[in-house]
């Protein structure tokens, strides 16, 4: 089968939308760190729309921070790839042209730093996942003892971490007399722009105080809320895209039709006209962020743990299970009073729409994928909500079951006795604690609650939290996930 590329674009099936601008005239303006499926299904999709609407120098240079496979798949395709949007009513296809090139940081850190320092680079955006920020998830502070940070301080010209890369790029720009680029965090972190600004400044200060001061005075770190459900691409997806488009594409992206992007409108050197193609430019992202992280991601994680334990492979299956769907409704009822509604949004409607998105049968989003990296996700997805509920003296039964399900999951064995492939930077720590506690719910919950990087110093001493978590964990061990969820009524 013929491979997708500039030369073969004309052979695409007529049903596929393709770049409606002169791609040969597209110049780079954005560097994106962590060019995975999500960024290609979100930032690049919005940018594609913006380019079609008003052409400008906003081509994207992707950078992979670890592996070379993304570059190896996209290079032979001249950066082109298919976005397949799966609505319950049927597929929609588009080939995206906004990605011009992909660099692999470990192969040539100097090339990446040079691109960051190029005068035409105006935005450096990031999707490097929660753990990619080398910070303490409970406090948002840089972990100066993180191996990648230790490495980057010793070798600032060959950085491995996203923060080290940003600082190397900003330093090169300052030294060349250029202004900074805007660093645009597109990960699901709380107050993501603010957190990134602090991490970059603190890392810079460990090298050079004057650089930290320059970044503090001139840098721009807008906060964002990003949303689109984009599961990892599978071989079956690749085959389906080839069938639908008529061309082979080694790097398609599969996502839901829904997308949302709220951006704090503070850019150091301009931006694409994303606001003309659906992005919401706002002065305060916080209400959007609380709504999304707490209601979507909080529910996603809780459902991923309970659903995985109950034997459901995907979010659609888990949320289609009547008991777990009822659990989600109870969970949202606990979360909603902690969320300041963004203007014009009715949170009960948002919750209803979320359930429909989760239940989209065309999207195969694995519970196992969402269950990954819980240590980095729990604080902003569930624990902040729990703290606020406790302060208000409000019940937290459903939220506590979400936390207990995470504990049951990281104990490492499923309800049939099979091993769970727990992926998390703290997986070895969980293993040690689970081995010591066995299936003793109170011992295991006490032990895991003692991990300060997740639960902080306050929650382990809060009996209104620790008691229900431990009781739910006992129920999960004794009766299983579905019965534990059903018992909440
Ligand atoms: C998911 C998110 O993998 C996860 O943890 O909860 O990737 C989620 O699909 C996105 O945030 C949706 O915008």
Could you please describe the fold and organization of this structure?
- The protein has 489 residues and is of the alpha/beta class.
- It has two domains: 6-282, Rossmann fold, CATH 3.40.50.720; 286-486, N-(1-d-carboxylethyl)-l-norvaline Dehydrogenase, domain 2 (Orthogonal Bundle).
- The protein contains 21 helices and eleven strands.
- It has helices spanning 37-41, 43-53, 69-74, 109-117, 147-154, 162-175, 192-207, 209-218, 235-245, 286-309, 315-320, 322-335, 347-359, 367-371, 374-391, 397-410, 427-437, 441-449, 452-455, 463-479, 481-486, and strands at residues 28-33, 59-64, 81-87, 90-96, 99-104, 123-126, 182-185, 224-227, 253-255, 260-264, 280-282.
- A five-stranded parallel sheet has the order 5-2-1-6-7. It has a three-stranded mixed sheet with strand order 4-3-9, with helices on both faces. The chain has a three-stranded mixed sheet with strand order 8-10-11, covered by helices on one side.
- Helix 6 (162-175) packs across helix 7.
- It is globular and about 60 Å long.
- It starts with 27 loop residues before the first strand and ends with a helix.
- The chain binds D-mannonic acid (CS2).
């Amino acid at each position: 089968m013929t491979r997708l590329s500039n030369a073969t674009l004309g052979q695409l099936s007529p049903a596929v939308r393709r770049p409606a601008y002169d791609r040969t005239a597209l110049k780079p303006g954005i560097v994106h760190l962590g060019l995975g499926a999500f960024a290609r299904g979100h930032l690049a999709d919005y940018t594609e729309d913006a380019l079609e609407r008003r052409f400008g120098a906003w081509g994207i240079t992707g950078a992979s921070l670890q592996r070379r496979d993304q570059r190896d798949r996209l290079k032979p395709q001249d950066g082109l790839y298919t976005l397949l949007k799966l609505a319950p009513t049927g597929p929609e296809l588009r080939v995206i042209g906004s990605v011009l090139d992909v660099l692999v940081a470990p192969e040539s850190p100097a090339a990446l730093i040079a691109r960051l320092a190029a005068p035409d680079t105006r935005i450096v955006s990031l999707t490097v996942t929660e753990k990619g920020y080398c910070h303490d998830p409970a406090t948002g502070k840089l972990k100066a003892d993180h191996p990648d940070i230790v490495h980057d301080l010793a070798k600032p010209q060959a950085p491995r971490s996203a923060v080290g890369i940003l600082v190397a790029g900003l330093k090169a720009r300052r030294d060349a007399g250029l202004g900074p680029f805007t660093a645009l965090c597109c990960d699901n972190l709380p107050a993501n722009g603010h957190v990134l600004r602090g991490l970059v400044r603190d890392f810079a200060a460990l090298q050079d105080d004057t650089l930290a001061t320059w970044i503090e005075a001139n840098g721009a770190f807008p906060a964002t809320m990003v949303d689109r459900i984009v599961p990892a691409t599978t071989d079956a997806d690749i085959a389906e895209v080839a069938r639908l488009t008529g061309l082979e594409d080694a790097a398609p992206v599969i996502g839901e039709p829904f997308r949302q992007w709220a951006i704090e409108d503070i850019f150091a050197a301009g931006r694409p006209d994303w606001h003309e193609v659906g992005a919401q430019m706002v002065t305060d992202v916080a209400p959007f962020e609380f709504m999304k992280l707490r209601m979507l991601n909080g529910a996603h994680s809780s459902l991923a743990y309970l659903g995985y334990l109950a034997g459901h492979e995907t979010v659609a299956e888990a949320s289609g299970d009547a008991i777990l769907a009822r659990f989600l409704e109870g969970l949202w009822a606990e979360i909603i009073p902690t969320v300041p509604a963004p203007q014009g949004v009715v949170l009960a409607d948002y919750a209803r729409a979320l359930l429909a998105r989760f239940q989209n049968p065309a999207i195969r989003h694995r519970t196992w994928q969402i269950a990954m990296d819980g240590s980095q996700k729990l604080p902003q997805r569930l624990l902040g909500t729990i703290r606020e509920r406790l302060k208000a003296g409000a019940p937290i039964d459903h939220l506590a079951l979400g936390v207990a399900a995470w504990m049951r999951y990281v104990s490492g064995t499923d309800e049939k006795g099979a091993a769970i492939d727990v992926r998390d930077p703290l997986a070895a720590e969980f293993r040690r604690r689970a081995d010591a506690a066995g299936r003793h719910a109170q011992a295991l919950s006490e032990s895991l609650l003692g991990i300060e990087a997740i639960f902080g110093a306050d929650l382990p001493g809060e009996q209104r939290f620790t008691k229900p978590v431990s009781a739910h964990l006992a129920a999960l061990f004794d009766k299983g996930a579905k019965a534990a969820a059903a018992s909440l009524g």
